[in-house]
Write a structure and sequence with these properties.
Layout: H1 5-10, E1 15-16, E2 23-24, H2 27-56, H3 62-84, H4 89-115, H5 123-126, H6 130-144, H7 147-171, H8 173-176, H9 179-188, H10 190-224, H11 234-246, E3 252-259, H12 262-269, H13 271-286, E4 294-299, E5 302-308, H14 316-327, E6 338-345, H15 351-367, E7 373-375
Parallel strand pairs: 6-7
Antiparallel strand pairs: 1-2, 3-5, 3-6, 4-5
Length: 376
């Protein structure tokens, strides 16, 4: 298999919502997936028509009974894969292109061998429409793949399919000068090479699309992140919490955290130190969470977390956060503590209901003297 699928796939810009595993397609992936579905639908229709036509023909050769149905079934299989897994469209199309090149090469080789047999019919009378299929395949490579991958695929297809046919046509002037022979010479020669000229144009388009993709991802990241701490912001957290409630299949807990006496820190040391305290509290707490958990800056000196709940110790994670904040002074502010409210999130919950319970638990922690965890 031609290398390049991993490199091409790495240039795809899909991102996963942290903790949820939800894959969101970037603009390039959406374009590739939609274009792949369109191309494969056309190819499947054409393959099915060729299959049907050969079935009605009185003159049939062994490849006519094998290549069209095989190509049609492969096309449908790849189409189904892309419909189910659109983020794999580019990789699926790479496999598809290689399989189609192989089928074209097998077909061309069989008819070349048959044409060289004594007493056989001329190649121009037997050969199926290999040349337009090859040109179409070369066009597909320039659309779906990085220039280096497209060049390798195109060169491989030309060497395996076009070159043997061109050599045969050059060696048989009677067939070369026929209408079909001239068509083959044009399609397999100049038109095939024209596709190589399109690769630099594709490279420029690819660069521009990459820039647009990166700009979109940066804008999306800014919309979901808190600029001071680089944690998720309140908007992103509420979206994640709503998703947890909708898909809750195992115990989850919501934690609200408030830095104790933060106003006094700001008043005494100034806002730069206050910002430093917020960043450090966010760093310490977020480092405790596991894969699938999320920690966000709720606003001001408040933070929020969603994490898996230990059934025997529902307050364990919140207590670890409280101890991590208190354990080491944050200079120059010194010893910093926090109050935390915890509540369980369940499948029939509501966003407002879960937040209200956690907020009430946080308020109770403050009323009971701060620097403590309260379950709600």
């Amino acid at each position: 298999m031609i290398k390049g699928a991993d490199q091409d796939q790495q240039t795809e810009t899909a991102w996963a919502d942290e903790g949820s595993g939800t894959r969101v397609l970037g603009p390039r992936q959406r374009f590739v997936a939609r274009m792949a579905v369109f191309v494969l639908a056309l190819a499947a229709s054409g393959g099915g028509l060729a299959w049907f036509t050969h079935g009605l023909s009185h003159t049939r050769y062994p490849p006519d009974l094998v290549i069209p149905p095989t190509g049609t079934l492969v096309t449908l299989a790849v189409l189904i894969v892309i419909l189910l897994r659109p983020h794999l469209a580019r990789r699926a199309m790479l496999v598809y292109a290689q399989l189609m090149i192989g089928l074209l090469a097998v077909s061309a080789a069989w008819f070349l061998h048959a044409a060289l047999e004594p007493g056989s019919r001329p190649l121009v009378e037997m050969l199926p429409p290999v040349s337009p299929m090859l040109v179409a395949l070369l066009a597909i490579t320039t659309v779906f793949f990085q220039p280096a991958t497209a060049l390798r695929l195109g060169l491989g297809a030309w060497l395996l399919v076009a070159l043997p046919l061109l050599i045969y046509m050059i060696a048989h002037p009677d067939e070369r000068e026929s209408a079909r022979g001239l068509e083959l010479m044009m399609m397999l020669g100049p038109l095939s090479l024209l596709m190589a000229i399109m690769i630099p144009l594709q490279l420029e388009n690819d660069r521009r699309l990459t820039e647009l993709t990166q700009a979109e991802l940066q804008a999306r990241n800014r919309a979901l992140r808190d600029p001071l701490t680089d944690l998720f912001n309140r908007r992103a957290f509420e979206d994640r919490l709503a998703g947890v409630i909708a898909q809750s299949s195992h115990p989850q807990q919501l934690i609200l955290l408030d830095i104790d006496h933060f106003k006094a820190i700001n008043d005494k040391y100034g806002h730069p130190v206050g910002d430093q305290v917020i960043r450090e509290v966010g760093r310490r707490c977020s480092s405790l969470l596991g894969r699938g958990d999320i920690f966000a800056r709720w606003g001001g000196e408040e933070f929020a977390a969603i994490c898996a709940e230990a059934e025997d110790e529902p307050a364990a994670m919140a207590e670890r956060m409280r101890r991590a904040i208190e354990a080491t002074p944050i200079e120059p502010a010194g010893r910093v503590t926090a109050s935390l409210g915890v509540t369980r999130v369940h499948g029939n919950d509501t966003l407002q209901g879960a937040l209200k319970r956690a907020d009430e638990a946080l308020y109770a922690a403050k009323q009971r003297g701060r620097n403590r965890v309260v379950l709600g």
